[in-house]
Amino acid sequence: MSTTGLGPAARGPEFVSPTVDPPSFVAPSSVLPPSARSAARRPPMLLITGLAVVVVAAGAGGAAGYLAGRDGPPPTPYTSSGGPADLVGAAARTLPGVVSVQVRTASGGASGSGFVFDDRGHIVTNNHVVAAGGAVTIVGSDGRRLDADVVGTDPGNDIAVLRVSPSAALRPLAFADPSRTRVGEPVLAVGSPLGLSGTVTAGIVSALDRQVRLGGAARQTAVQTDASVNPGNSGGPLVNARGEVVGVNTAIATLEGGGSIGIGFAVPIERARQVTDDIIARG
Question: What is the DSSP letter of 124?
């Protein structure tokens, strides 16, 4: 079993399905030092079906399709319950509050995503994006680069808080009411997969309160989504059709170290919000 994360040091959440034995793990990165890239190329040890968890947060894929009857009328667009028109509006509201996170170290670097938490310049991302240390820079939706300080981290929840100089171009995102989140509702994952900033992909909430290991030894609840996760998405928001943050995209399951198989996980916003508030209070 091997674990590597998005930074130079070995790092990654360990997901264990409630119904199968522990799988092997492999984590891709869009930016890895030579030693980590070499380790990543080694064939993973496969247990059970070779299920692996990748420490990169999700970009959602696999939106629900519509099968029209052969002789029936064309499908009617659904807009007021989270359909395409709502997701267009959600993307427009979310993108100004999402940033790319870039980390530079002496031996390499890492990249990820984050979102604006408040109007004081606090940014939420994943701990594994900044765990290796180094200089941190964020890039806003307008292309502006800002140096960021790490206020604090919570490895067990895979949450880190950054701080930059407050800017009118950085718009805080709204947070979802957890009691209103439903299985099957449409969601968007927003971030910078493979360095492609401002990328938006769509999916649904596949499950709530899924027991997984996102950063520590203990299992915790996570929002499961049919997310298409790629390196660089880590720490970006999973938002509903109202543009409210449902969770912080963190990991996906893969087969034999490959790409997404439609099983992604996000730290629920209620826990991410509490952890962030605690970090800010301590910082």
Answer: E
